[in-house]
Amino acid sequence: MAGSNQLKQYIAFGIDDEIYAVDVLFVESIERMARITRVPHSPYEVLGVINLRGDVIPVMSARRMLGYEEKPPSDATRVAIVRQDEYRVGMIVDRVTEILNVPQDRVQWGVEALDEKRKVAFSGLINLGDKPVMIMDIPRTLELLLN
Description:
53% strand, CATH 2.40.50.180, mainly beta, globular
């Protein structure tokens, strides 16, 4: 029987002073920033494509998705390659902070937040005490961006 203290892993990433999380099962890899080839007429959140070991991967800006102003990449900037079904997309984040091992009773589900200005969906909130961490709903977010 699975208890409410069963651990689930999340990749935590930072945008400015805020921390967000993605279920580790949706993250294929974390890559250093690569040269982005712009794609004409792409949505505002999509910066272009990168070549990742021979595969062309569309990349989107988490800053733009979350409504932050754009800023130049730093040495800490990373591309999280996320996958849902046949979709494989790079998500540019300011920094990857850690892997969180969270007991499921510390997660508030049903915090379904969706702001029309932002092209992102959230499914829950991790209560870490000092700062809440929003869990990005990758399937719904990709659906919003790609449809």
